[in-house]
Write a structure and sequence with these properties.
Blueprint (H helix, E strand, L loop, with lengths): L2 H91 L14 E3 L7 E9 L3 E9 L7 E9 L16 E3 L6 E8 L2 H10 L1 H9 L2 H14 L19 E5 L7 E6 L2 E5 L12 E4 L2 E7 L2 E7 L6 E8 L11 H18 L6 E3 L3 E3 L9
Parallel strand pairs: 13-14
Antiparallel strand pairs: 1-5, 2-3, 3-4, 4-6, 7-8, 7-15, 8-9, 9-11, 10-11, 12-13
Helix pairs in contact: 1-4
Length: 370
């Protein structure tokens, strides 16, 4: 068969072959596409089921968390209330009554060059722990050009008796004891303000005194019933069985840090105590002092992922959010070997540094108890 005949023969068969190949292709691909669609439907259904299960479990766990938090808040509120009451009693017992409350004529003065008028009036409040005088100054108002202010001193701090620490751009103080500067009235003349004072003594005194006499009653009752040393708190002595030693952070250049667990909290041994640290955050076990640290520990690791020059593991306070990261001996050991292997696979030469806490275990099994 010559070339012409071969070409014509192939041409005549080409339509058949094209249709055959396309048919076989379409038949095979359509079956696979159907299988693929069924697979996607199956996985979509499984994913929806997993998402629904996840949502339901999250809702269930969230409800349990909320119930625990609400119950704890109810119990804590009563105890916090007691401590707040004692805090106020201690503040009452700590009031410094040695400060002279007398207010001199020049305790404050008017610094305005354009409206220099200033006159100090008599006391409107003259009590053992609160004294307030009135004064009149000239202001920059077009009509009511004179202002009446209360200027005072008080033995009680703001946490016991909140008195207005007002502000007036024209008034400056010569007396650091002046803590009350209350704007009271604006009128056209000095005479009008003095008449207003004469006619409204009771009203002005009420505005300035507020709950002062209630605080005085609290102050007297506190001193009749208590002494400040009654509320001195000591670092509680805790038996070792109640605060077991879980592990130690091992150091070569300083004493090891011992970690105990007491009432659901981790406590760290300390060589010295900051004066700002409350005794409520300390316990004493076997003649050693421990400071409250946290309730949950977890394991972290990070480093240089590009060059592999360093990698670091730590035990830190906070919430892990993943059970696999919560600080337990099995988790720490597993994460240590994983981090070390990762670091070895990434480091270049012998210049890399792998840092990790050296631990000495005592009762790691107690970390598993919830």
């Amino acid at each position: 068969m010559d070339e012409k005949s071969k070409l014509l023969d192939k041409y005549m068969r080409s339509n058949y072959e094209i249709n055959r190949i396309k048919g076989e292709r379409d038949a095979k691909t359509s079956r696979l596409e159907e299988e693929q669609g069924e697979m996607e439907d199956e996985f979509d259904k499984a994913i929806r089921l997993l998402k629904d299960t996840k949502t339901e479990k999250r809702r269930t766990l969230g409800k349990k968390i909320e119930e625990i938090e609400e119950k704890a808040e109810e119990e804590l509120d009563s105890w916090f209330l007691i401590r707040e009451n004692v805090k106020r009693i201690r503040a009452l017992l700590s009031v410094n009554t040695t400060m002279d409350l007398q207010i001199a004529d020049d305790a404050v003065y008017n610094v305005s060059k354009w409206h220099p008028f200033f006159e100090m009036l008599d006391y409107i409040v003259d009590e053992n722990h609160l004294k307030i005088r009135l004064c009149i100054i000239e202001n920059e108002r077009p009509k009511n050009k004179f202002s009446l202010f209360g200027v005072g001193k008080c033995h009680f701090p703001d946490e016991l008796f909140y008195h207005d620490r007002g502000f007036c751009v024209a008034l400056c103080s010569n007396d650091r004891g002046v803590t009350i500067l209350r704007e009271l009235k604006h009128l056209p003349s000095v005479e009008a303000l003095k008449n207003y004072v004469d006619e409204n003594q009771a009203l002005l005194k009420k505005r300035l005194v507020k709950n002062y006499f209630d605080v005085v009653g609290e102050y007297q009752q506190a001193h009749e019933q208590f002494k400040l040393e009654d509320f001195d708190e000591e670092v509680p002595l805790v038996p070792e069985v109640a605060a077991p030693l879980i592990f130690e952070f091992v150091h070569d250049d300083k004493p090891n840090i011992l970690v105990r667990r007491f009432n659901g909290w981790f406590y760290q041994s300390v060589e010295s105590v900051d004066e700002k640290t409350s005794d409520n955050d300390l316990i004493e076990v076997n003649d050693a002092v421990f400071e409250k640290w946290c309730t949950v520990l977890y394991v972290t690791d990070n480093g240089n992922k590009i060059f592999g020059s360093w990698w670091s593991m730590n035990v830190e306070s906070g919430h892990a959010n993943k059970k696999s990261r919560r600080f337990t001996k099995p988790n720490f050991d597993r994460l240590f070997y994983e981090a070390k292997a990762y670091f070895e696979s990434k480091k270049v030469g012998d210049k890399g540094h792998f840092r990790y806490p050296r631990l000495k275990w005592h009762h790691p099994e107690l970390l598993e108890v919830e």
